[in-house]
Each structure stands twice: as C-alpha cells, then as structure tokens.
Amino acid sequence: MTARLSLTTLPAGQRPIAEPDRIGIVHLGLGAFHRAHQAVFTEQAAIITGETGWGISGVSQRSATVREQLAPQDGLYSVLTRGPGDPTVRVMGSIREVLTAPEDPGAVVARIADPAVSVVTLTVTEKGYRAAVQGGLDLTDPEIQADLAGRAPRTVVGQLAAGLVRRGESGAGPLTVLSCDNLVANGPFLRRLMEDYVRALPEAKNLIEQLEIARFPASMVDRIVPATTDADREEAAGLLGVRDEAVVVAEPFLQWVIEDDFAGARPAWDKAGAILTGDVAPWEQAKLRMLNATHSMLAYLGALRGYETIAEAVRDEQLAGLANELMTADVIPTLTPPEGLDLTAYGQSVLERFANPALKHRTAQVAMDGSVKLPVRLLGTIRDRLAANAEPRLAALAVAAWMVYVAGGVDANGNPLKLDDPQAARLQETLADAGITPGHRSGGAAVQRGSAAGSGIALGAAPAAVVGALLGVESIFGEDLRDNAVFRGLLVDQVGGLTE
Q1: What is the DSSP string of 97-111?
Q2: Cα angle vertex 438, ends 432, 442, to 5°?
Q3: Using the 8-state DSSP alphabet, how is residue 3 labeled?
C-alpha cells in the first residue's frame, strides 16, 4: 500500500520549499478553495522573501474532515493543477495547524487573539456570514442568538468578536480581517455585520474600541477549484509517490486583488502576484457579474440538459453562445472596467477556462446555494439594466433556469436534481403552497433545442405560476424585483421557453 504523505515519507524533491516556522494568519473556512488560493500565495511569498513567520492556522467551521486529512500529513497537502498540458502537482506547507470550531471554539478565539497573528482571512461562502435580507446581520438566526447569549462562539462573527475582545484585554494590537468570499464590497460588508453584532451585545466597550482600529479591506479572488474525486487522489499519488488524502484540484489561472488597507504587518502577497489597489470594486464587479454569473447560468442550463460538468455545458454551442451573450449584452454595459482590463477579452477568457475538460467542475456543485448566489451574481446586473430602461433578457434567462431547476426537480433525462440550498425548505414550501410539485419531465426527446435553451422539463404548472411563487421570495428578490412588471414578464417568457 502506498505510504501516506508526510514530512518523513515525502521524497526530498517534492518537499515544500517553505515551511513557515510560526503562525501569523488565522483562516476561517478551511476548504479546498483556500488551500488552492490564499495558502498558495502565502507559501509563494515566503519562498520569494524568505519570511517564514506567516504560517496559517486553518479553522474548519463544520466538521473535522479537513483536520483528519491534514493532521496525519504534518499539515502538508498537494495542489493538482490541470491545464491544457499534462497535470502538475506541488506540495504545500503553509498550513501549520488545523482547528475544528464545533469541537473547540475556545481554541479558535485564543488563536485569533494571539499577538503573533495580525491577519484573519475568511472563505466561509456567502451563507456563512448569516446576513439578513437587507444586508445586515440576521439577529434572528439561532446560532447568532446563541453566540450573543454568551456561549463559546460558533459563528464567524461571534468568533471574530470574541477574539477582538481578548486582543483588547491583552494589548495584542489591531487586526486585519480580510474576507475572500464572492460578495459585493466584502470587507465593508463584514465590518457592518460586526457592528450589528456589537450593537446587540449588552456590554461591548472593549469590542467597539477594537473595531475602530481593525481594518476590513475588500478583496477579489479568482481560481476554479472543483471538488476532488478519488481519481484525482490516485493521479496525485502517482505523481508524488505517496498518498495525499487532502489533495485539491485547480486550474492554472490564479488571481487575487486586495484593497491596500492593513492594520499591521502582512505577508508579501504582492511579491507572489497579488494586486494591491486602492479600489477593488471594478475588479470585483467584473468578476462577480461576468465569471460568477456566467458560471451560475451554465450550471443551471447545463444541469437541466443533463450535463454533469461545466466543461460539457460550455462545449454545447448554444449554451456557450448564451453565456457569451449574457456578458456582452447585459453585463458589460453595467461595468466600469479597471485600468488594463479589456472586458470583451476577459469574457472570452472566462469561457475558455470553463471549457477546460480536465477540471470536471460539476454543474451540481456550482448550482448549490442559489438563493444566496443569485443576488450577488445576477440581480445587480438586472437592477442596473432595468434602471437604464433596458430589458436584461439573458440575465433573466439565468434566473429562469434556476427557477426551473428548483421547481422541476429533474433534468431532461428524468434524473433528480438535488436542491442544496440554505433556503431549500422555504423554496419547497413556497412551491407547494402554489400547487407545484417538483419531479416532472416531458415524454418527448431527452433534450429539446427548439427554444433558447429548452430542457424538455414539464413543471406541472403554468410558467406564470412558477415565476409568481419564486419571485415572491423577498429574501432573494426583494420587493423591487418582485413588483417589476418587465422583469416578471421576461421570467415568464424564459421559463416557458425552458419547458414545454
């Protein structure tokens, strides 16, 4: 049996170049994306500068799986990069500690409060911030209420608040809190959540003082990181000569744009290729509205047609054409590009990256959490186009595809489509109240091509009924889009075109 990856089993030629000797960063949300992105930048910066004091303490917010993968491997893992040529593998050593928040929340707070730590980064996904519809903290969330009541904190906002309080008590110095999630103005967004949390506490003088000196820079991250499969693990083992249970897969492309607003010391991420800027917003808007929105469109349309991966969906000429039209007709008119970024060329590069067959990024994975992804990826574009008296036909198609995905429950071949969403229960209840039962399919061809992107799925209800039910979920669409006749009409037409 192949030996497991560790410092003792790894061949000398595969050992990570940088093994940071102390912890200077805490990362909340230790998933595959962080390991393929920020941890890579951190290690590369250590290689270039020789500064090895920026080891990462990674915090898993849900389960012990990542710890069980990394602990027997001395924190080592590999990044399997799949591009046009042969795959390459590189072992990383920047993660020096793994904590599991549900098991030991006190250890998480203690590490955030450590004077040696000056930066906390986050990739907890959109739903991990527990935001309310209006954008602030959802103070009705049971987990937030439990943290406010004084338990050892389990939410990221509670963990940060407790860590900041302890830093104030010990004189540990100010902290930079750097969100790396796909959210509009993610830094100011997180600061607002923290401020809402503070206002809900009975006594928060120390925390208020720490928030005043903390920094919450915005950032934009970009790299496609599909879920790792057993085949990926086997290939990495063949390249490494040892078995890696924590391997992550990624495309060659790697980008990080960070607002240059730090409270103290930081790794030399700019030396490793990160862009430090005074204004992240143009980069962020381009990425969210072009790459992320197109990713979602292809996920829903592709899944409805029975495609398992994004690469399969984008190789469908009709779907690729619709994705390109979404960017050129609806998105680009709403953007002010950052200096040096050609939006048309960027859009073409997005589709080229999605077409990489080696990545096997599953449509089901991208389709997850639609209720929190749609507002930040598509609805801003729709609102801007409507305000300009334009009809966002392609953006509405992407939303309609989500509606058919949710309400239909199956693809064109009759295979079930899993609704993995934090509002799944509410969406299903809303549909049930409207008399709509998911799980219908047509009796005709598996995939129909007659409409813009026909799926051959029968909803068992009129398109207007489906749109009326789901558009009424104000936590997603708000009152403005719910009541907009133009948008409603576009959705009814597009849902009708996607079905029988």
Answers
A1: EEEETTT-HHHHHHH
A2: 140
A3: P
Alpha helices in 134-275 (DSSP H): 142-148, 156-170, 186-200, 205-213, 230-240
Q: How far is 23 from 35, CA to CA, in rounded Å?
A: 16
Give start and end residues of each alpha helix (H) in 225-362: 230-240, 281-286, 293-304, 310-315, 317-325, 343-354
* Helix H or strand E encompassing 496: helix 485-498
What is the number of other CB atoms lying within 10 angstroms of the CB of residue 359? 20
- Using CA atoms, how far apart are residues 60 and 338, in angstroms rounded to an integer? 34
Matching CATH number, 12-277, of 3.40.50.720, 1.10.10.60, 1.10.760.10, 3.10.20.310: 3.40.50.720
**Distance from C-alpha of 248 to C-alpha of 44, rounded to nearest angstrom:** 17
Strand partners, 416: 410
pLDDT at 448 over 90: no
According to the model, what pLDDT value does residue 439 have?
A: 64
Does the pLDDT of residue 274 top 90, yes or no?
yes
- State CA 226 to chain mean position distance: 11
Question: What strand order describes the sheet that includes 255-259?
Answer: 219-222, 255-259, 275-277
Cα separation, 257 vs 263, in Å, equals 17
Distance of CA 263 to the CA centre of its chain: 25
Phi, psi for 153 (deg, rounded to 5): -65, 140
Q: Which residues contact 479 (CB under 8 A, 6 or more apart)?
A: none
Strand-pairing partners, residue 77, are: 92
Label the pairing between strands 219-222 and 255-259: antiparallel
What is the C-alpha separation between 166 and 113, in angstroms, rounded? Answer: 6
| Pick from 478, 295, 293, 493: nearest CA to 400 | 493
Residue with tokens 């409060």: 113
pLDDT at 441 over 70: no
Q: Which residue has the tokens 């449509």?
A: 363
- Helices 463-471 and 474-482, axial angle in degrees (round to 10): 110
Classify residue 212 as exposed, middle or buried by CB count within 10 Å of its CB (0-12, 13-18, 19+): exposed
CA–CA separation, 102 and 184 (whole Å): 28
Max CA pair span of the chain = 70
Of 3.10.20.90, 2.40.300.10, 1.10.1040.10, 1.20.120.530, the CATH number of 281-498 is 1.10.1040.10
pLDDT at 289 over 50: yes
Angle between helices 424-433 and 463-471 (to 10 degrees): 130
List, in order, residues 6 or more apart from 414 with CB less than 8 Å away: 441
Q: Which tens digits make up the pLDDT trace of 81-117?
A: 999 889 999 999 999 999 999 999 999 999 999 999 9
* Calpha distance 44→47 (Å, rounded): 5
